[in-house]
Amino acid sequence: MKTVLIVDDDVTLRTALVHYLENRGYSVLCAGTGIDGLTLFNQKHPDVVVSDVMMPKMDGLEFCRQLRSTRSGQLTPFIFLSSRGALDDRVEGHQKGADDYLVKPFDPRELVAKIEVHLERSRRIHAELVQLLQQASSMPAAVESATEPKATIEPAPLPLTPAEERVFWEVIQGLTNKQIGERLFISHRMVQTHLSNILSKLSLENRAQLTRYAFENGYKPPANP
């Protein structure tokens, strides 16, 4: 189950979006200011962010700028919602780091379409990263004796529980929480719980970092999972 973070000071709109998105299978987090949005993002690491522009304390533009300045927020899809639909406003939103800009009032079906497009793009980027790392890990060393056998160095044991380790191997192969849940016969929420524990124990922030960590440290998934 993908998680959407909604950041908007309009309680009525937030409530409507939560209802609409949850009915379409999304998990939804809510914040009323950019400050609260940053806190929730750092705690929960949602898959996509949808934010208003005009908000108290910290507006959406500053929220987007600060989120993009963090390592974990650089690649997270970010969509602005705003009643300010002039060209200059849309350009400024993109310049601050937004991937998309939707003008209020809008049809929620269009928002869902944009969310799905950006999530699919993120999935393809992650899959491509996995493939590149797999290719890099299988390449022979630049200088290697053709006659001497290679020393096999086993990676260090993972500091994970057996259940977390099973999720670890599935994640680094690029599977979604839904796919992992179906393969391991556990709920999506349990998959996310295990994944959060894995990231915490390995001092990582997101799936992309976990994949890179695995291949840089010699943790290769089985050839036939």
Plain-language structure description:
The protein has 225 residues and is of the alpha/beta class. It has 2 domains: 3-120, 3-Layer(aba) Sandwich (Rossmann fold), CATH 3.40.50.2300; 155-225, Arc Repressor Mutant, subunit A (Orthogonal Bundle), CATH 1.10.10. Helices cover 51% and strands 11% of the residues. It is built from 9 helices and 5 strands; from the N terminus they run βαβαβαβαβααααα. It has a 5-stranded parallel sheet, with helices on both faces. Helix 1 (11-22) links the parallel strand 1 and strand 2 (27-31). Helix 2 (34-44) runs parallel beside helix 3 (60-68) and helix 5 runs parallel beside helix 9. It is elongated and about 60 Å long. The two termini are 22 Å apart. The model has no long low-confidence stretch (mean pLDDT 85).
Radius of gyration: 20 Å
- By CATH, the architecture of the largest domain is named 3-Layer(aba) Sandwich
Average pLDDT confidence is: 85
Weakly predicted, low-confidence segments? none
CATH superfamily of the largest domain: Response regulator
Count of runs of 4 or more consecutive helical residues: 9
Structural class: alpha/beta
Compute the number of strand runs: 5
Which overall shape is indicated by the principal axes computed on the Cα atoms? elongated
| Integer tally of domains | 2
CATH class of the largest domain: Alpha Beta
Strand content range: 5-15%
